[in-house]
Amino acid sequence: MIIFRLIGESFRFALDALRQNKMRTMLSLLGITIGIFTIIFVFSAVDTLRSKLQASIDKLGSSTVFVQKWPWGGFGDYPWWKYMNRPEASLRDYEGLKDRLEYVEGVSYEISANGRTIKYRSNSVEGGGIRAASQDFNKTWNLDFQEGRYFTDNEGKSGSPVIIIGADIAEGLFNGQPAIGKSITVMARRLTVVGVFKKEGEDMMGMSQDKNILIPLNFAKGIMDVESERYDPTITVRGKDYIALEEVESEIRGAMRAIRRTKPGAEDDFALNKSTIASNQLDQMFGVVDIAGWVIGGFSILVGGFGIANIMFVSVKERTNIIGIQKSLGAKNYFILLQFLFEAIALCLLGGALGLLLVYLLTLALTAGGFEMILFWKNVMLGVTISVVIGTISGFWPAFSASRLDPVEAIRS
């Protein structure tokens, strides 16, 4: 209780001192306010962008592996010359994996093409994306429907002229009317709509079914070369939930090497891509941005810290005789030290609070302008922690020097 009383009295002394010197207090706050604002704004912007990109990556699935020609990356020291002559994922690879793999929920072969026109009577939608996939596509991806259903086994095997469309495509063609059972034209072919994907909204990586259409792979074989490199053929493998991803990946690698008859010791001529690769690349990229945020804001906080220390030395000088009176009445050294230390911390906390308020107001303005930005609670706590640390460091030496004053000399000053 004595400790709490001392802390309370120290804070009251500190607040009285701040109130008596309002202009000096406001000027002292500026450095800390600008520093906290800079660091927390940068971190909030980075964390918002990171969370949106991570949400897009999470759609790939934590237990999903993509068998492709090119490994994900494509920047820095990416050795593209090693991968140029690799073969694309083929139907032969797909059939071989389907027969060999045991630790998987589903295996699908997929191709995609962009910039297509979809028509229904006088209505048309430009720039639609076409995806053609084998029957297990619904086992390798999580699909939600707002209308209709997925392809039946007979429709997939026989290559029936059926199609599933995205929510934006449905809205553009049918203006809110039911889409199921209607015939639309794609690549000069008429297909019957059997399903409409649930609206997802656009994400940071453009991974949305809203502007896509899906057709059976066996139907696509009649209108395009499904093994052509320009359609980015991909084999998607989704492992069973209770099997570790490393085991699934190892099984796929062994099966692919056997299918392609790769010699022992030879390098793989395929890439096994997974969501963790993209997540790690995100962490590396945003790690650099975080360091830049610390450097930019750190200089402002450093200047603000020197400003606080300078003001605290002035405050000690002004109140030297009061310190002498307090000591003559029995005040201990640690009470004097705490009094000035808490004054410095209170000053920094006030500056930090103003900085956080500015960040919050800016996030509201950006969100109202169409760019959603979030001030995460961890960043608020970071701002408070930085303020306390800077206040402690900046105020310690002035507070220590005040606590060591001789009471007689202090009163005479």
Automatic annotation (TrEMBL):
One of its GO terms (molecular function) is transmembrane transporter activity. The chain crosses the membrane at residues 27-46, 291-313, 334-362, 374-397. It comes from the Bacteria. GO terms for cellular component: plasma membrane. Pfam families: FtsX, MacB_PCD. It is a multi-pass membrane protein. Keywords: Cell membrane, Membrane, Transmembrane, Transmembrane helix. Residues 295-407 form the ABC3 transporter permease C-terminal domain. InterPro entries: ABC3_permease_C (IPR003838), MacB_PCD (IPR025857), Macrolide_Exporter_MacB (IPR050250). It is found in: Cell membrane. Residues 25-253 form the MacB-like periplasmic core domain. Its main location: membrane. This is ABC transporter. It comes from Pedobacter steynii. The lineage of its organism: Bacteria, Pseudomonadati, Bacteroidota, Sphingobacteriia, Sphingobacteriales.
